[in-house]
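User: Show me an example of a complex going from sequences to structure tokens.

Assistant: Sure. Here are the input components:
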Amino acid sequence: MKLGFSPEEEVFRAEAASWLKAELEGAFADVRGLTSLTEMPERRRDWERRLGEAGWSCVGWPKAYGGRDATLAQQVIFAEEYARAGAPPRLNHIGIELAGPTILAFGSEEQKTRFLPKIAKGEEIWCQGYSEPGAGSDLANVRTKAWREGDEWVIEGQKIWTSLAQFSDWIFVIARTEAGSKGPKGLSFLLVPVDQSGVTVRPIHQITGEAEFNETFFDDARTAAESILGEPGDGWKVAMGLLGFERGVSTLAQQMGFRNELDAVIAAARANGEAKNPLIRQRIAKAEIGLKLMRYGALRMLTDAEDGKLNPSALTYKIQWATWRRDLGELAMDVLGQAGETVAGHEYAFPALPNLFLYSRADTIYGGTNEIQRNIIAERALGLPREPRGDLK
Amino acid sequence: MHFAFTDEQAMIAETAKTFFAENATSERTRAAMADTGVDKLLWQAFTGELGLAGVAIPEALGGVGLGMVELAIFAEEAGRHTAALPLLASLGLAAPAILAGGTDEQKARLLPRLASGDLVASFAAVNMGGTPGATISDGTLTGAALLVPHGASADLFVVATDNGVAIVERGALGLGITPLTSMDQTRPYARLDFGGVAVETLADPRAAVHAALTTGWLAIAADALGGAQACLDRTVAYTQERIQFGRSIGSFQAVKHRLADMMVAIEQARSAVYWAACAIDEASDEASFAVHAAKAFACDTYSHCAGEMIQLHGGIGFTWEHDAHLYFKRARSNASLLGTPDWHREQVAGLAGLDKAA
């Protein structure tokens, strides 16, 4: 058991840090320190391309597909340095963290060659088409249909909560390709271009006042026959495999964002004197500890993954971070007091900490609610009986 | 960076797991609880046959020469079975104090005997926890230590006062030892009264106290981790056997979700304990933060899980016959001993920079 890094790894760190510093103090100084995912989208695309050109976009991927063949330790180091340099959240995070690894695991050689380098070079941005109005927690209840017509798939239906669809070039869609099938059977995993007349993206206004999520409608949408991962009917298997990738090295980058949020709470508490309040001190200490335990939990999972072992504790990560962040949002408001409840001007747009209080209510819902996470932990990690299915429509 | 056991550590963990499962049975622990709180056969086997008691004591001083990760492994497995051993008192507190603060002569005289288990020591920090305290003057110790873990069965005491760390032998003139009926009978307390006891002192008291507390906090956290895991494992097994309303109670979401929450906390406690162990071994800047975090988080987790164990077992969990109360009481003792979770979090708050100027 070892936490420190080797001298060779420190050389890699210096190389990454100096490249990031040069870019973010030079040509990309304008995106440095951005925290929202959607601000300055065109510059964020430029940043994705710049990372890609220099080979710093998908460092853990094979070189053949635009990566750098980085070891786990190097990936961890890059995530740390990326955050330390004040680099912005990745506009293409769904491509990098979800679509890419899924294509790597389930795609044909042609698909890998076609899609992965474009993700690694920042040329194609991706979003995810999973949930539907009638398929939220019960994800397998998908109604979006697809069928073959000539050398194309035709897609009809509606997806919801498709974040970043407004900036995306591609969407991956779980659709029912076997008429009359139910539940996880008869689904397929399709890769669909967004820029076509059959795809309509409509923003959803959320409780923060922003519109990061969308509804995406498919009406005679088309994609090439070969744009399917796995065989027709394998969609559920591919989709569940993808959920496993949601807990990769990217979690460390996400934690760096949390670090910034906690630092902002601490700064606010020091500024207004709440840092002396013993109850606030306890809660800040809890948040500090929780954040460290996310980091070391992630390093445990990643080390085990590198050794080819699946650590069941990986199943606990989603509820852990989502609950932590929701608690941080509440702590932020208790630190700010009423001052956090108003904002200058007429626009309903709150600064980072009050916005966190509102936004973090989504964290315990999307990607599997806390309640679904508890079912998953109880059933898959602890071996307790499965929830019975009802038969209401 | 490789945050998983090495092959050697995995073997040690397997050995420890098997050893405590076979030897630290409920029956034997209960016999020890009714006696002095030490399962003497278990202690002999642990220090003698297994020969791993001096895991964190250098080989030249009769130990095994490994580190905090290995010590945590043993403490975790002992905790899993609420083993009635002076593991914390003798090896988690007294030995590191002597190792870090003793003269070469003191180390050579005492540590091999602690490693072999011939000598059982305990530790008291008399300036913690609102005790009347004790002071050393002219080579004599005067005052009292109110709550000394396994104090009635120890042969030697390391007593940290504000003006030095004294070594007191059982049987020393002027030493009074009063066993205290303790809620946790697997680690009972004793009161020590020092009526001008002639003592020797450790050369470096600051280093001694720092090492004792750091190692002790880690050992308590690891004990708590093992205990919490046992609470979960045993409760999962019970809820699958117990049938009510024609189904196992473990099939109810009200029960499943509580068990899931226990696992979420335990996995964080596991990260905390082994992070802290590594950070101490690697002399990381984070070591202090890590060990406070581990003590606070693991003890809270244990208290929560032991409470859930009783609740989810229902009436049977409230009986003396069932082991749930052994965990519940040890969890309480772990939380109180050497700083409550709130106190450790307050240390974290300071380390997190809350007192810096705005």
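The lines above are the inputs; the final block is the predicted structure for all two components together. Chain A touches chain B through 51 residues (CB under 8 Å).
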